[in-house]
Amino acid sequence: MRKSAHVVPSIADLLQNTSANRTLDVGESHRAATARQRSHQEEPIRPKVLLRDIGIILTMLIWSTPVHAQDITRAPLKKSESAVMDNHLSAVQRDAIMTLLQEALLILRDDRPLTPDDPAFGKIRWVKKSPFSEFGNVYSFDNDSIPDSEIKLRKTDYPFDFSENRSHVPIVPSNFELYFYAAARGFTPSMLKEQLDLADFWIDGDGEKHDYNDMGPGIPPMTALRTYRYRANAQPDSKFPVDVELSFNDAPPGAPPGTQPSLWIVDIHRAYAHLTPETRKNKHLEAATRAQAGNGKSSGASQ
After folding, report:
1. What does the pLDDT average to over 85-106?
2. Are residues 58 and 100 in the same domain?
3. Is 51 in the same domain as 104?
4. Rg of the Cα trace of the chain?
5. 301 backbone dihedrals φ, ψ, rounded to 5°
6. Residue span of the structural domain in which 214 resides
7. What confidence tens digit (pLDDT) does each residue in 155-173 have?
8. pLDDT at 300
């Protein structure tokens, strides 16, 4: 990422600006006027800082701190006891990552059932309730061959089962995410596109097709972040379409020629059409009506 060009305001400036924005009461105004009259004789009155002012100051400092030219991290870097992926990935690490991503594609296409002890994912670290589904779970995995990373798989209630009682609906995989705490160099977008058999286009939530993959650089200050979106090519036995999003960090300015971008996030999810509760209810009523009509025909035929 590029370094920010703006100047960070000092604490004194922030204190002065914050204090100036507050309305002084009569007593404060009188004391301020008296202080101005005695400005050559006494030390000026220092602004009074309230707790809310401290919060404002801290917030402004956080958002005004320059972003250094380094790889983006979601959390402080966790050093592993094995190998830290701050350089080029080893062949073993690349193979483990590709095996994991290909397995995730198979599961989300429903070409292969999900088994919690799948060696491609590693060992389950924890299981939590999904924030997106009352009945689904989020699985987090540790994989010794992919250090300094976070591996998650989410399951949710099947959105195309229109039963109003969602507790009876099958729970299915919906989303996979691989996130790297440290730079993971050794893959390029074109390499992953070829090895994962991804298409030259992506499809948005409204079903519109876009004939490109590169979404361009990120907005400031995250200009080094570059995202690529794909629809995975359909396979003969696949039951569901799958979308893939890759997030890379471009090589920093001044890096040696040929420095590869670093892989940050891989997001793979089933491309379900969006269904509102109202749409699901209407679909449920349509299904119930068809079932009743079918039962009526069967009763008439038996008579």
Report:
1. 87
2. no
3. no
4. 28
5. -70, -35
6. 91-272
7. 998 888 877 788 888 999 9
8. 57
